[in-house]
Amino acid sequence: MRSIKFSLSRKSTSGWEAAVLLTEAYLTGDQKADQLLDGLPEDFIGDRRAACQSLFLGALRHGHRSRAALKGLMRKKAKPGVEAILLVTGYELLDAESERYPKIIHHAVECSKALVNRFEQGFLNAVLRKLPDALGQIVPGTAPAAYFSHPDWLVARWQKEFPGSYTRLLEWNQGIPTTYLKIYDPKIERPAGLEATDWPQFYKISGHVSWKDDLLPLLNQGNAYIKDPSTRLAPGLLAPQPGESVLDLCAAPGGKAYDMAHAMEGRGQIIAVDLPGKRIGRLQQNLDSLQSPDLICRIIESDLLELSADTFEAHKLPTAYDAVMLDAPCSNTGVVQRRTDVKWRLQAKDIEACAQLQLQLLHSAARFVRPGGRLVYSTCSIEEAENRAVVDAFLASKSGSKFRLEASEISYPWETGHDGAGAFLLQRT
């Protein structure tokens, strides 16, 4: 198969062909889905880009089901390029009415002529004609992991953790995520096409909204931010007040800083800390838009585990804060719908490794809370091991004995209708 760079540089490259090339790149490389999509050429826009994104993410989202169906149709594993075509077409078949099957299969076989050799074309034609029936034989009752396209180990884990709800979780994860806009100033005129939701200030972005004409002006003015309603939980519990000093840990790209700055009515101090890297640039842009004579916004590039009072003193900043936000790195099991390849990259050992790191980070964050101050620990995981278990382990420790759990909120997607998350408010005595 030809290189992605070469193929996507041609104006004749269709969204379907691009999706196949990205799927092959995902199967053979180590890049995440969003990294591959971000790597599309700038002039690969409009319907082509939309089709490519939809088909590529759909192929990943439903890939396990397609592979299960294909297992009985092939004697050996297909080459990555051929497998990519099968996965993209498998998703198309799953997403279509039966009367469209012949057209979808014909299109795939014809388009494959530019990607594979003649022998592989014949193989694809034979397999794809049998694929609709094979897909239909996979049912949730007997093969939930295959039907909902999740790893066997993760389904088994969730069967134990959420025995009455795990199928609803699996079904949720297979949906197409909604894009939301949070508008901070209720007085501004909202663009047509924004749909109100059950969560104040959050609006669903419909296809009628123009990115250039409607959204960019709001975003550039600092009056709005693209984020899921689950992101309201942690800042809501921390509830920073005007004039307070706030420490935002693991802060990039700055979405929670936005919420906190508006809650503070633009008065006080926000110190953001995150690891050096390209995400710092986005964080800087966001903080620059919040900066004002009454609101000081500063960035410290540092590993939280290495952060000390000396670090703050070197920057002429306080060493203890009224409010500390720790949005810890996690397994991302609450956002599988939005980051569909998470379920394929994640392993069981990763959840336990995350929990160990999170506890270390929580201990580090606690050092910078002033007496009487507040600390919020949050994740975008739905795992007990990364949420309440981490908090309980911290509270049972010597340093944690200075804190008490005041409140907590857990978002389970099948209940809330948005991304999963955990948030815990700890009050220092």
Observed structural traits:
Rossmann fold; 16% strand; 429 residues; alpha/beta; 20 helices; 4-stranded antiparallel β-sheet; single chain; globular; 7-stranded mixed β-sheet; 3 domains; N-utilizing Substance Protein B Homolog, Chain A
SSE blueprint and pairings:
Elements lengths: L3 H5 L6 H14 L4 H6 L7 H16 L1 H9 L8 H15 L6 H11 L6 H19 L7 H4 L4 H10 L4 H8 L6 E4 L10 E3 L5 E4 L5 H10 L3 E3 L6 H6 L6 E5 L5 H9 L4 E7 L4 H12 L4 E7 L7 H6 L6 E7 L14 H4 L2 H19 L2 E11 L8 H8 L7 E9 L1 H4 L4 E8 L1
Parallel strand pairs: 5-6, 5-8, 6-7, 8-9
Antiparallel strand pairs: 1-3, 1-4, 2-3, 9-11, 10-11
Helix pairs in contact: 2-4, 2-6, 4-6, 5-6, 5-8, 6-7, 6-8, 7-8, 18-19
Task: Tell me what you see in this structure.
- With 429 residues, the chain is α/β, with parallel strands linked by helices.
- Helix 4 crosses helix 6, helix 6 runs antiparallel to helix 7 (101-111) and helix 18 (348-366) crosses helix 19 (388-395).
- The chain has 3 domains: 4-138, N-utilizing Substance Protein B Homolog, Chain A; 180-226, no CATH class; 233-428, Vaccinia Virus protein VP39 (Rossmann fold, 3-Layer(aba) Sandwich), CATH 3.40.50.
- Helix content is 45%, strand content 16%.
- It has helices at residues 4-8, 15-28, 33-38, 46-61, 63-71, 80-94, 101-111, 118-136, 144-147, 152-161, 166-173, 211-220, 233-238, 255-263, 279-290, 309-314, 342-345, 348-366, 388-395, 413-416, and strands at residues 180-183, 194-196, 202-205, 224-226, 245-249, 268-274, 295-301, 321-327, 369-379, 403-411, 421-428.
- The protein has 20 helices and 11 strands.
- The protein is globular and about 70 Å long.
- Helix 15 (279-290) links the parallel strand 6 (268-274) and strand 7.
